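[recover] target loaded
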């Protein structure tokens, strides 16, 4: 404005920002609108900061295949394999009645044009997978971060502060965090700590009672909803 010899405004309101700065260039993830079967919310960190990340799982008749889409990197693909192995190994304990040899499993992280990788999505993938297999919905206001081992142990992650802030901004109320990351909470603002519920976990069997609803649900994601989620903001390493 100075270069154009225009007088600068004395007050800038929310309504006038569009006129001065133009359309919004960046958006961020928000919490799901309702509990969903086969959809779990994780958190990711990139150079731009933290953001939420949906992981979707759907089942179909098949021959035991596993399909991974969404430009997942090698580490996330391994996380998906580990999550499936955990679910198959503990199927009886988890109350899963699926015949894994007669179904195909499709795991998708929306925004396929954006590469995604990192070592902390295992817990989210496992939760979405077990949700789909058990027909128990994932609570819409719950998010999580952490890697999973074949035995179901939860491993610590990096970037906790950015992930917590992203979850808080998205309106999520409960966050599952590896217990070994408890020490990193010192970096999270006290106001955020007061406004969210943090659950520190060491094993997958501590995650599921918090993340999943008790009753089976017939509600599943549709193709239209999958496409809609694909229009969200780009996300980086998890």
């Amino acid at each position: 404005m100075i270069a154009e010899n225009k007088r600068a405004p004395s007050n800038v309101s929310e309504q006038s920002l569009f006129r001065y700065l133009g359309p919004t260039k960046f958006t961020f993830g928000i919490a799901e609108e309702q509990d969903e079967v086969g959809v779990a919310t994780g958190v990711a960190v990139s150079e731009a900061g933290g953001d939420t990340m949906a992981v979707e799982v759907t089942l179909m008749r098949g021959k035991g295949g596993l399909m991974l889409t969404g430009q997942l990197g090698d580490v996330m693909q391994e996380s998906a394999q580990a999550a499936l192995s955990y679910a198959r190994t503990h199927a009886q304990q988890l109350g899963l009645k699926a015949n894994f040899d007669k179904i195909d499993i499709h795991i998708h992280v929306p925004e396929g044009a954006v590469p995604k990788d990192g070592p902390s999505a295992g817990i989210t993938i496992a939760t979405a997978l077990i949700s789909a297999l058990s027909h128990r919905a994932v609570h819409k206001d719950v998010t999580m971060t952490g890697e999973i081992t074949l035995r179901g142990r939860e491993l610590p992650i990096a970037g906790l502060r950015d992930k917590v802030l992203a979850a808080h901004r998205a309106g999520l109320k409960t966050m599952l965090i590896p217990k070994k990351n408890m020490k990193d909470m010192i970096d999270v603002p006290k106001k955020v700590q007061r406004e969210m519920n943090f659950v520190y976990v060491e094993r997958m069997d501590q995650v599921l009672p918090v993340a999943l609803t008790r009753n089976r649900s017939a509600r599943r994601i549709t193709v239209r909803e999958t496409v809609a989620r694909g229009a969200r903001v780009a996300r980086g390493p998890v």
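[recover] notes: The longest strand covers residues 49-61.
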